[in-house]
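User: Can you help me understand a structure? I only have the sequence.
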Amino acid sequence: MENVVVSRIAEIPAETIWAEMKHFDRVLRWVPGGNKSTISVKGIGVGAVRDINLITQGYVQHELIAYSDENFSFSYKLKDGKPVGMQDYVVVAKIIPINNKSCEINWSGKVVSDERVDEKDVAKALSVALNNMITGLISFINGEKPVFINQPLEDWQKNNS
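Assistant: Let's start by predicting it. Here is the structure, written out as C-alpha cells:
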C-alpha cells in the first residue's frame, strides 16, 4: 500500500470551492475528458455509489464513505474498475480555509496496485490524477480552460481488462 498526498493553495474562498466540490455527481466538470464521459449516481449522502465511464480510462465505480459539510471534507473508495492500475484505493478530499479569500485544497489517498503493475508507479499516477482534479476544479470555478498534466498509466485499465 502506498500513501499519496497532494495539496494546493487557491486564491478562492473555501466556501466557493466546497460549493462545487461537495457534489458527488460533478467530478466530470473538472477532470480530463470529463466532457466526453458519463456519470450516474445512486443514493444520496454516505453510501451513495457513482458509476463513471471515463473516455480516458474506462469504467470506475466509487462509494461515498464519509461526508462533512462542517469540515468541508468527504471520502470515497473504489468499488469496481482498475483506473491507472489500482486494485483498491480510498481517497479523502478536504478544503482548509486560510482566510476569507483563500484556502488549501487537500487530497490524500491510500492505494494498492494490481499485481501486474508496480505500486510506486500507480501511486505516482494517482498523485497526477488528484493534481489534475485540483487544476480542473480551480479552472472550472474561475471560468478558465485547464492545463492538465499528462496522466501516467492512463490507458492501463483499457489495455489490461
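Now, to help you interpret it: Strands lie at 2-10, 38-42, 49-54, 58-68, 73-80, 86-97, 103-113. The CA atoms of residues 41 and 50 lie 4 Å apart. Let me know which part you'd like to focus on.
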